[in-house]
Amino acid sequence: MGKTGKIVTIVLWALLIVSAVLIVSLMVNIEEDIPTDPAMNSWVNTNLIWAYILTAIGAGIAIFAGLANTATDKKAAKGGLISLVFMGGVVLVSYLLASPEIPQFIGVEKFLNDGSLNASVAKLVDTGLYATYILLAIAVLSIAGMSVARLFK
């Protein structure tokens, strides 16, 4: 194991130890009265913040590793760019198909009155639905197409 491997191992053990100490501390100090006990709220908040930190570190490492791989591998960069253009196309087609019309359902007045539902929100929701339908259709067609292609081989 090289120098980098040792450093990574040490960092992972340190993260594991901190996580274990926080979880054990939370479990030891747990009480029945969580909403009214400020000390318990503090332990819960500390564990949540630690979870957010670990999630951010993991996401950052994943993004960095992906970008590093893309920067060093031209074929991966080309594939990634094609994927981004394809997703952009799906979103564009979905947005063009989407309607800003507000749907009518029981209780819609509540959302209209508090401002959480308006024409732009309705259009974005419609865009998301159309994108989901388009991607589902592409997935089903590609699965069916591969099955048919295997029959002819």
What is the N-to-C order of secondary-structure elements (H for helix, E for strand)? Answer: HHHHH
Q: How many strand elements?
A: 0
**Which secondary-structure class do the elements indicate?**
mainly alpha
Sheet of most strands? none
Q: Give the radius of gyration.
A: 25 Å
Given as residue ranges, the uncertain stretches (5+ residues, pLDDT < 50) are none
Share of helical residues: over 70%
Overall form: flat
Distance between the termini: 46 Å
How many helices in DSSP terms?
Answer: 5
* Average residue-wise pLDDT: 87
Report on this structure.
The protein is an all-alpha fold and 153 residues long. It has two domains: 3-72; 74-152. Helices cover 82% and strands 0% of the residues. The chain has five helices and no strands. It has helices spanning 3-28, 38-72, 74-97, 108-113, 119-152. It is flat and about 55 Å long. The mean pLDDT is 87.
Can you describe this structure in just a few lines?
This protein has 153 residues and is mostly helical.
Core attributes:
single chain; 153 residues; mainly alpha; 0% strand
Indicate the topology.
Layout: H1 3-28, H2 38-72, H3 74-97, H4 108-113, H5 119-152
Helix pairs in contact: 1-2, 2-3, 3-5
